[in-house]
Amino acid sequence: MPNEPDDLLDISSEGVPRTSLPPEPEELRALDSLREAILSGDENQGPAIDNLKALVARYPDALSGWVAMGRIALEIEETISAYAYFRVAYHRGLDKARASGWRGDGRIPWEIPANRPFLRAIHGLAQCADAIGESAEAKRCAEFLGMLDPDHPF
């Protein structure tokens, strides 16, 4: 079970280390429906925003909350805010990867659901960096994604 620290790092059949980040709290599964409510513009938008902020405040080390805020900011064309949210998720993701045994090389594959918020953070950071003219950072993020999972969906 990937919840145990000893099980977070394994070796693939190709001999490449594969890291699994720890799973995030179950309560964060509500993020997608909150994001949809916020972007829908209906009467539930205010409570959804409040609920999203409360979840991020309750779980500030969870990547998916920051990623959700970044995705919302991107969709409403608040690129600088999105960049900041994705950067927080990226740095917290690096911390979690290192705590899980990742040492700067090896895979953090998309196929492991707990890794997806980190990979989404890197992708979002790349998008924002490109949008604000930080092409070198956008390129580094794209290369990093390719290193972590050459088959990522982005």
What does it look like?
- There is one protein chain.
- Helices cover 57% and strands 4% of the residues.
- By secondary structure, it is mainly alpha-helical.
- It has a two-stranded antiparallel sheet with strand order 1-2.
- Strand 1 (9-11) and strand 2 form a beta hairpin.
- The model is unreliable at 1-7 (pLDDT under 50).
Order of helices and strands: EEHHHHHH
The global form is globular
Count of alpha/pi helices: 6
Q: How many distinct beta strands?
A: 2
> How would you sum up the major sheet?
2 strands, antiparallel
Q: What's the alpha carbon Rg, rounded to whole Å?
A: 16 Å
Query: How are the strands ordered across the major sheet?
Result: 1-2
In short:
The chain has 154 residues and is mainly alpha-helical.
Key structural traits:
single chain, 154 residues, mainly alpha, two-stranded antiparallel sheet
Could you outline the blueprint of secondary structure elements for this entry?
Layout: E1 9-11, E2 17-19, H1 31-40, H2 45-58, H3 63-75, H4 79-99, H5 116-131, H6 135-148
Antiparallel strand pairs: 1-2
Helix pairs in contact: 1-2, 1-3, 3-4, 3-5, 4-5, 5-6
